[in-house]
Amino acid sequence: MTGLLKDRLRLYLVTDPQLCAEAGVMNTVQRAVAGGVTMVQLRDKHAKTPERIELAIALKNALQSSGVPLVINDDVVAAVATDVDGAHIGQGDITPAEARAMLGPGRILGLSCETAQTVRDADPTLVDYLGLGPVFGTATKDDHAQPIGFDGLAGLVALSPLPTVAIGGLKHDHTNAVAASGADGMAVVSAICGQPDPQAAAGAFHSFKPEHKA
Ligand code: TZP
Ligand code: MG
């Protein structure tokens, strides 16, 4: 499972409804997957659970033939109701124990960690992967923590007992630096959402070859 999950984390698209407003989330995701995205997170801070469920079902159906996993940010109720692949939570959301109890053993649970202590506290019996960052400051998340840079990222990756995906201000010209950190994947929002050609934007990450920390 871990080997496979590491591969799925390689190019991880996090959706943003504002940035995707023109093309639409569905169209953006489909084109981005055609361009090489390996995992998708539905993230919409302002939607209510029923709207999120509707979009999640449409995305799940669209992704089915590709095998690309779909997880939902924050809303574990929606993830269970739609039977998607899993959920992603942050430090301020419900606890990993609560999320795991709702998700059951078979679904993916991701957890955002910004500090060494939160990485140390992450319980591998509950959580499947860690999102680490923000690497850089970003306008996409207004309440983000202090950026950690590539050195900070490498430090958190080294501490992690779990597969990791880096996030925050990452663009295609950061692929070598992220690979050198040992992270298994790059998670991006604005590098793909709202780009004129999401397929080409995803394709621009083709040179990313994660080194996968031993
Ligand atoms: N968590 C930490 S930074 C961030 C999230 C969801 C937003 C990253 O967006 P972008 O546009 O890839 O910098
Ligand atoms: Mg959250």
Automatic annotation (TrEMBL):
UniProt catalytic activity: 2-(2-carboxy-4-methylthiazol-5-yl)ethyl phosphate + 4-amino-2-methyl-5-(diphosphooxymethyl)pyrimidine + 2 H(+) = thiamine phosphate + CO2 + diphosphate; 4-methyl-5-(2-phosphooxyethyl)-thiazole + 4-amino-2-methyl-5-(diphosphooxymethyl)pyrimidine + H(+) = thiamine phosphate + diphosphate; 2-[(2R,5Z)-2-carboxy-4-methylthiazol-5(2H)-ylidene]ethyl phosphate + 4-amino-2-methyl-5-(diphosphooxymethyl)pyrimidine + 2 H(+) = thiamine phosphate + CO2 + diphosphate
UniProt domain Thiamine phosphate synthase/TenI: residue ranges: 11-192
Annotated residues for binding of 2-[(2R,5Z)-2-carboxy-4-methylthiazol-5(2H)-ylidene]ethyl phosphate: T138, A139, T140, G169, V189, S190
EC number(s) recorded for this UniProt protein: 2.5.1.3
CDD domains: TMP_TenI
Domain of life: Bacteria
One Pfam short name: TMP-TENI
Binding site for Mg(2+): D74, D93
One MF term in the entry's GO annotations: magnesium ion binding
Binding locations of 4-amino-2-methyl-5-(diphosphooxymethyl)pyrimidine: Q41, L42, R43, D44, K45, N73, S112, K141
Keyword Metal-binding set for record: yes
Function of the molecule: Condenses 4-methyl-5-(beta-hydroxyethyl)thiazole monophosphate (THZ-P) and 2-methyl-4-amino-5-hydroxymethyl pyrimidine pyrophosphate (HMP-PP) to form thiamine monophosphate (TMP).
Protein's recorded name: Thiamine-phosphate synthase
Gene it is expressed from: thiDE
